[in-house]
Amino acid sequence: MFISIIAFSCGDDNGQWSMVNVQCEYRSPVDYDIVLAGNFGEPRPWHFHGGIDVKTDNQEGKKIYSIADGYVSRLTVNKYGFGNAIYVNHPDGMTSVYCHLKKFVPAYEDMIARTGWRDTLDVTFPEGKFPVHGGDQIAISGNTGRSTGPHLHLELHDTETWVMYDPMEKLARFIADTVAPQAHSFMAIPQGGEGVFNGGTSKQTFGFGQPDTKKHSTTWTISREFTAWGRVGFALWADDYCEATYNHYGIRHTRLLLDGREVFRSDVSGIPVSCQSEVNQWGDYQHWRRNHVWYMKSYREAGMRLPILHTDFNQGIVTFDEERPYHLTYILRDYQGNQSEYHFTVMGRRDPRVTPRRRPQLLNPYQLYDCCLWPLHSRKSHTY
To answer: What is the Cα–Cα distance from 211 to 312, expressed in whole angstroms?
Structure first.
């Protein structure tokens, strides 16, 4: 996989600026077929999973390779967290991080002074000291730090901002996956004092009833009809899968359509570290505490900064203010393009307990906007 970016030099003696085309070829961090134990962006309490977990057959000692050209910029050793970890800066502005290692190759191991298993060490290197090529061995796999079993945890960050990106964007061609994500159930969340769903004012969950099968694509429709009035938000419990393992993963792409129009979209890559804790706002954290199941909201709560969430003018909240059928569709897709669709119908039925607020009038035809651009609270309009 070749990635190209445009970088600017500082100029020549005549003050002329020039452009340099930087390319990186990415390759696998291991010398066998990659099977994932976990993917990027999975919701966890107070944080997102910041990388991919590559299985090592539940063994230590597998060779770990740099995924692209660059230089070793940092080594860290800790009893907790990443354990033994190595950082490689790449010329396209990205940094790859390899974690839970047993040890580094001798050239790097010799640069740290271990004293015992409780060591906390952090060593950085200048650009020219340890250059590496993609495919060079840099370590062997282990089970150090906060690890529940031998594996390689691999992260990819923007070197300058440390924003977290999905390593699948560089490594997807090395990972077999022909199975679509599956939704298990949705949650209806009437907004306090402003909405009713199926006659109730509290949140409710409803299963899709889809058979648990691994398919490349699927379309599923709930035959049951629901009723609603006023403002209602929705949330979804879903998992991604692949054919090679029993593990389940987080969802990369989610869309919610109302009568064919997109009201919510999430694309889980490019997460600022400062937004980590907002996973508890995007997901229903209280429900997770009781049931250990994440329902991820298809709307944006007030004050959320997560730039991976995109909504319509109403922040993704659906307003039922006409006595007619409303057709809702969830579309789930993984990075490999496997896709599933889930359809259900909600009948608008007037309820005297709720008076729907007046809908805001748009002065131009755009339907979506990016609500937050980290680190500033800002809104950017787009025409779709």
So the answer is: 32
